[in-house]
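#struct-help
A.M.: can someone run this one for me? Single chain, 175 residues.
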Amino acid sequence: MHATAAELEAGLHEIRSSPASEGTVELIVRRPAEGEREVLEEAALDLDEGLVGDRWRAEDGSAHPGTQLTLMNARVIALVARDRERWPLAGDQLYVDLDLSPDNLPVGTRLALGSAVIEVTDDLHTGCAKFNLRFGSDAIRFVNSPAGRALRLRGMYARVIEPGRVGSGDTIRKL
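D.P.: on it. Structure tokens below:
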């Protein structure tokens, strides 16, 4: 069921071929409660709430603004999850066909998607025990390997700079 280390390594070429400046929002997922996922055609991005209706804040209401949004490369999740229906299990909100590597999108880079603008933060996004359980130990090693970190295979955090709406299929581009 899980991708093997060899299969994951074989997919690196395709991941490295992700567009650098302009790509596509492939999937939007809201997490209204622990363990719940809602695939959305469109979502509102808000300065305070991040993706409206998502549970990114801690139970006590506190939140670190640098972790408002999570983005993952669509080519990575396609390789790891093997089935598009399993993409939301990764726990990210925005799955995009765009090179998310720090070399391409350093901290502070702004991205326009739909009518919103977001900014890459310096918070490190790594795979957790749930990611390991859902996608396997080879997948967690793959995304957290030196090459995986160099490409931000597990994804990245961002914060909302300009509120707006984003839809599945919208363009995401570097500003």
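A.M.: thanks! The chain has six helices and eleven strands.
D.P.: also worth noting: The longest strand covers residues 22-30.
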